[in-house]
Amino acid sequence: MHTTWNWLLGVLHLVTWGSSSTLLTIYAMPPQSPVQCNTTGGCTLYSSYGVWGDRKDCHAPNVTYPTTEQELRSVVAYANQNKLKVKVVTKFSHTIPKLACPTSNSEASLLISTEKYNSNIVVDKDNMVVTVDAGVGLRELIDKVEEAGLTLVAAPYWEGVSVGGLISTGAHGSSWWGKGGAVHDYVIGLSLIVPARPSEGYAKIIRLEAQDPLLNAAKVSLGLLGVISKVKLSLERGFKRSVTYNFTNDAHFEDVFMDHAKKYEFADITWYPSKNTAVYRYDERVLLNVSGNGVYDFIGFQSNLILISKSIRATEKTFENTRDVKGKCTLATTTVAAKKLVGNGLKNGLIFTGYPVIGQQGKMQTSGSCLYSSSSFSTCAWDPRINGLFFYETTAIFPAPKFGEFIRDVKKLRDLNPENFCGVDVYNGFLIRFIKASGAYLGQSEDSVVVDFNYYRASEASTPRLNQGVWEEVEQMAFFKYGAKPHWAKNRNLAFLDVQHKYPNFNRFIAARKQLDPQNMFSSEWSDEILFGKEAANKGDGCALEGQCICSEDRHCSPENGYFCKQGLVYKEARVCRYLQSLSDNEYFYGIRY
After folding, report:
1. What angle, rounded to 10 degrees, do the helices at 2-18 and 306-321 form?
2. Model pTM?
3. CA–CA dist 470, 149 (Å, integer)
4. Less CB within 10 Å around the terminal CB: N or C of the chain?
5. Is pLDDT above 90 for 23?
6. Please, what is the Cα angle at 556 between 550 and 561, to 5 degrees?
7. Among the residues of 137-232, which ranges form H helices?
8. Which residues contact 407 (CB under 8 A, 6 or more apart)?
């Protein structure tokens, strides 16, 4: 039965993803504002997925929407004078950790939204730089500089971010060429509003230029140094890109990834482990006079009919509840086949007709068409209003020399039972990208490989997941065996354990925070939890199910549902919540004693 249903879902995936963006725009529903306030006073800040990692709401008495830099300065001055905790939020709220929540004592806090601080984009064509208000959206910035015949070389794949937000959290694309794939490495100046003495009006604007040592602290600041008001970015002359996806066997890709990254300027690799498939992205710049008007409209970021998103979630939830691994694998097969058929969202014009797809840099570097329309028939697939897709996103950043060994270990775990990896292939497999060493204190200190993978999250915190132990072992293998750094804007809390020891310039960042915000006005217990990588002292029942802790006792899992705290199968030091059919079977798994 599930084979027929999944085949239908796969076709519906294809119909939805393969439709023209014009059709989708007519019927799509844009995301709601992340800040919702009631008429009696009080506001709640939501993530774009509707739920924070700890599933606790973030409250604040008020939110303010400044429109100018001076209004921003006045708000910071007011907050400083009244000893309020402050956090900056954007129009999008796509950061997964609770960095934007000001304090659990909501009465002494204030949210500053940059949603309406988005008027100024000043392009200097002669010097090839752009100065932009922090609240400007990435798509607006890209379109403006492209109109001037210039381009922003690096951008994250998802365009639903503000300029201030994306540099604050280290957002990136993929490149080991030039300055690399991280946007903050193109920042050559930045304005920051920080608390000040009463004689200075309680707040001041500081302008940081390229040679200022504080710039390396402010480039990736997690919002902890002050309010970013303006950002100056270096640009290049406009160009086109030529993109081809090569779907092939995954044999030895862990040995050739460096060559791939060095050969193609914007290379990446998508790995579908259950399908033994690696997809190489051959992506390089070409001259503007090369024929082609292509667009990259990634299928995962296109609008989906609400019925389809709800149906896919309901189907995956059924597979979880019935422990139907084969059902997930059928869905994974149709999903990967659909992506291959439609070029993963590449379009030569209205549709994908074949490789290579050639188009303007600004149309090929990032996407997010589900953001932009106004009806109620379709939306982004993860929109919390529709009970659609709901998932975790783990993103690990490896020193390049360690990445191959990590993949070899994951393959060993995969080869024990490939079907247990279908759950990640239902989403986007392992997306592998490349970023260069950075001078930013909270950036990467060496050339690095970034791995993103999404996987099912249960609707209830107390509900364990199918193959939970597999994904916990991969997660712990990445962050603890191989010392990967967590992406600041993604991940479950456990990924940040001991993160401060992974950054050589961490103490320099802390010194800058003390200098610019000595009273910790922009810090909170949640941002400190991430920044200083501490596990909760009191680990509650079930805390490991959602990555709030690493299990050390069975009660941290879900023994009543058959999930017990056990060691990893390949990475023996891992401690994971694994399903056991019966207590008498608890020494064996896949025929292996542990």
Report:
1. 150
2. 0.93
3. 48
4. N
5. no
6. 125
7. 138-147, 163-168, 215-218
8. 253, 254, 271
